[in-house]
Design brief:
The protein is mainly alpha-helical. The chain contains eight helices and no strands.
Length: 187
């Protein structure tokens, strides 16, 4: 059973995902409006609608500046949520070190990895603000990798990780800005 701590970041994550879906749907609904040439040309609308649905990804590459801005802001919020969750995980790891002496070495390794992950995410935010989307991807992927490495430290010593759910959720959080930016095809 999950504790409340593992759920407290979910509302913000849900909000981000909803915002991204809304931007996606609004853009597609605008792109699929009937062609107006003074007549009710149903076949032109159907043709336009089919071509947009068939080339969904291509359509999103050309989304409006407003949509781009909203998606980039959502990616920044996703990075900030990831940073907050990483910091919260550091607090949890400190508490686990006090109560779980048998895993102290692994947990110490996780502290190092989560500190590194936070710095990577802070660098990703800086890169995002400068328009360096490729750098955002690299830093966010590195942060997700740090959580994975934390988990691997327990497996290497054949110990059960008390951080499995947190590590997985952190990796998922780090993937969210990558997903948002991939909608824009700005790798």
């Amino acid at each position: 059973m999950r504790s409340w701590e593992s759920y407290r970041f979910r509302p913000a994550l849900l909000l981000l995902v909803t915002a991204a879906a809304l931007v996606h749907n609004v853009h597609l609904s605008v792109a699929t409006r009937p062609i107006s040439n003074g007549t009710n040309n149903i076949s032109a609308y159907a043709s336009n609608h089919a071509s947009i649905q068939g080339a969904d990804h291509e359509s999103l590459k050309q989304c409006s500046n407003r949509s781009r801005t909203l998606i980039i802001k959502a990616a920044e919020q996703a990075l900030n949520i990831s940073i907050a969750y990483g910091k919260d995980t550091i607090v949890v790891v400190h508490e686990l070190i006090k109560s779980n002496k048998s895993c102290k070495d692994c947990l110490d390794g996780c502290l190092v990895k989560y500190h590194k992950a936070i710095y990577n995410l802070l660098d990703a935010v800086k890169a995002l603000k400068k328009g360096g989307y490729r750098s955002v991807n690299l830093h966010a992927e590195a942060a997700a990798g740090d959580a994975s490495t934390c988990e691997d430290g327990f497996a290497d010593l054949s110990k059960k990780s008390p951080l499995t759910q947190r590590n997985q959720f952190f990796e998922d959080l780090c993937d969210l800005p990558l997903s948002l930016l991939s909608v824009l095809s700005v790798h």
